[in-house]
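Budget justification, computational time. The allocation requested in the original proposal was used primarily to generate structure tokens for proteins on the priority list. As evidence of use, we reproduce two of the resulting records. The first is shown immediately below.
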Amino acid sequence: GLSQYSSDPRTEWDLGAYSTKDQVLEAVRNLRYKGGNTFTGLALAHVLEQNLKPDAGARLEAEKLVILLTDGKSQDDANLAAQTLKNLGIEIFAIGVKNADEAELKQVASEPLELTVYNVLDFPLLSSLVGTLTQVLCTRIKEKSNKENAGSTVKDIPVNTGPQLSPTDLKISAVTSKSMHLTWSPPLRPPKKYRIVYYPSKGGNPKEVVLDGAVTSLRLSNLTSHTEYLVSVFPIYDTGVGDGLRGVTSTLPLSAPRSLRVSELSHNSIRLSWKAAQGATQYLVLCSAAPDGAED
């Protein structure tokens, strides 16, 4: 399976999409590069919530591996998302190119770092890693499978979703130009935490809030006016992440002044008056001479 990311992760194909090596290579050749920001934490959460589920082709008995390829420092908290995956027994390999932050790669990757962290100076040099990485991946899968067969427990992503593990009935209310209020109904099995992610739909910076599992409402503030926001609420359990609730709404535009009036005209001055705009702390007044032939 493969996902690309910038400020919004995008699944290119799921684990169950192709059944032969040739099909995968053809998909890679047809891949279009997605430019943009570097929200690695959001991308790792996307992989867990969307790509490592049974309906995306993830087999419960199979070992779970994630290979992160990045050429920059993350603009959100990649370590928190990576830790969630690692706590579920998912192994992360981190590959940096060009301007990648090696300290961050080591934070995100699984132990032992000498096997899971790689860094190259440019994209063409990635080909030099293929042999080593293939051997390491296969060896790690065999080692983990042998441990599992020997009786050690491996945490898995829960199959049971729906009302037992997922919240329902997301409501967005009290929307203003700068804030909105979220409420939702908890799942039958209360989660340990909730992770709320929100960001402008046109590619703004994602932000997130983590709440205790007993809380079922949140006020989002310091938002941008007249902007459409995407909101997601994810329940977090010791054994994994339940299906998220998603909603979309737009903040209100800032109120405008009304009823502009002109009075006290002289040869070099005029007086303007208007009805106040709610919440305005200052006004900017612009004026210019009307072009020739236009009404004064």
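The second record produced under the same allocation is shown here.
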Amino acid sequence: LQGYASEMDNPNLVHLIPSALQNKKEILFGNLPEIYYFHNRIFLKEIENCIENPELLARCFLKRKEDLQIYEKYCQNKPRSEALWRQCGDSIFFQECQRKLDHKLSLDAYLLKPVQRITKYQLLLKEMLKCSKNSEGTAELEEALATMLDIIKSVNDSMHQIAITGYEGDVSELGKLLMQGSFNVWTDHKKGHNKVKDLARFKPMQRHLFLYTKMLLFCKKREENTDGHEKTASYSFKNSLKMSTVGITENVKGDNKKFEIWYNGREEVYIIQASSVELKNTWISEIRKVLT
């Protein structure tokens, strides 16, 4: 923040800033200032207070569960930030900032730190749990670990969610995103031609499902190469089912990884095959919760 973001306002360096970067500080850095202030003014002090009493550490995470959601915003902005960096990362302005800081690594390595940090907490809490079997504060550590895993899951889910394309409505109105993942899907429609029905039985479609409290979205995953860099996935919207009108059949004959979701008194039936029985059961229990 000091070596790069502040330097963008330095009158001596203004002429070096590439035009693609003009007025785009917020895109490049996301809400990094917010994350920095939270750690500097609040979280660090609270953790330092636990040096003498490490068993109190878990409470810091539980107390700050809401605050730690700021990482979600950072991660959601990350693809935009990376695209901008690819455009102008090799400019003289950044080279000059890096030289002044005497950093071996360029700015993009530091912009990755918050993403790495949010995934690191759960590892640290797991390590602490190993060292504190049945001692004071163990239950709270377990709760803190579950909290951090929850935050990582919602960050991960939201990263997929922002890549949905072609959905006419507003995704934010569908309620909480509970689960997302890829499945084999067969459809069976009562209406329509019998031939279609027969074909549908054999070849599954690959679909990425997003389960919200109000809606289940079926999307098709597309991998796109971005100018020679890592593939970015996007999910093109195919169809949706209102959760208030669906039914579920937990077991399908002949395959314990399959379940059915049907619509309108079995007028449309979707046979969904998970990659494992555990995954199927997790999805069924989430869907059950919504339905009840």
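A brief technical remark on that second record: The mean pLDDT is 90.
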